[in-house]
Amino acid sequence: MQRVDYTDNGGGNTDSTRLDIAVGATYSGGSVSEVTGFVGGSRRSFDQGGTEAEYSALVGARALWNATDLMTVTGNLSISNEDSELSAASSVTTTELGFGVDYEMLEHIILGGEVRWTDLRYQGGVEDERLLEAGLQARYLLNEYAYVGAGVAWEDQSSNDPDNEYRATVASLRLGVKLCCLRDTVVEERDGRQLRQGVVNGVFR
Length: 205
Prior knowledge:
Elements: E1 2-4, E2 16-29, E3 33-46, E4 54-66, E5 71-83, E6 89-106, E7 109-124, E8 129-141, E9 146-159, E10 166-177, E11 187-188, E12 194-195
Antiparallel strand pairs: 1-2, 2-3, 3-4, 4-5, 5-6, 6-7, 7-8, 8-9, 9-10, 11-12
C-alpha cells in the first residue's frame, strides 16, 4: 500500500491511496544466473470527490547473469502507477527497461555501462514523455567497504510537448560506503563455480 498526503493541496494536488496485489517467483540457474519477478495490478483512489479511481498493471522483473568470473550482466523491467507532483496530472504510469554490464578489469577496478529507457504516461492534461539514458562509469575499490568512482551519462528526453524535450550530458564523481557488515551471497555448485550476485570483492553495487 502507498499513501500520499500533501501538506498543501492548494496547487491542485490531491491525496491518494494506492493498493497493490501481485504474485512473484524466483528462478536460480545454478551458479550462473538468477531471475526474479512479479506481476499484478494496482488501484489508486483519491480523496477528492469526483475523481475516479485509476487502475494499472504492476510488473517487476530483474535478471542477473554471471557471464564470466569477471563480468556480470543485469536487466530489469518495471511497470507501476506513481503519484504525479504535477497539478495537471493525477498520476503517471511509469515503464522502465534497463540493461547493464559490469566488468572487473583489474583486482580493484570495475568498469560499467548501462542503458535505460523510461516511458511516462500521465493521467490528465500533461503530455507523455520518453527518456533514454546511457552511461559509463569506473570504480576503484578502496577496501571491502568503500570505493571512489567517476562516470558520464547522456540523457535524451522526447515529449508530445516540444517545450519538455531536452538533451544533456552529466558527469559525476562518487564516494560509496557500505554501512553494514553483510557479506556477499555466494552459492557454490558441484562444478566449483560461484554465483556472486553481481557484487565484486564485497562492494555493493
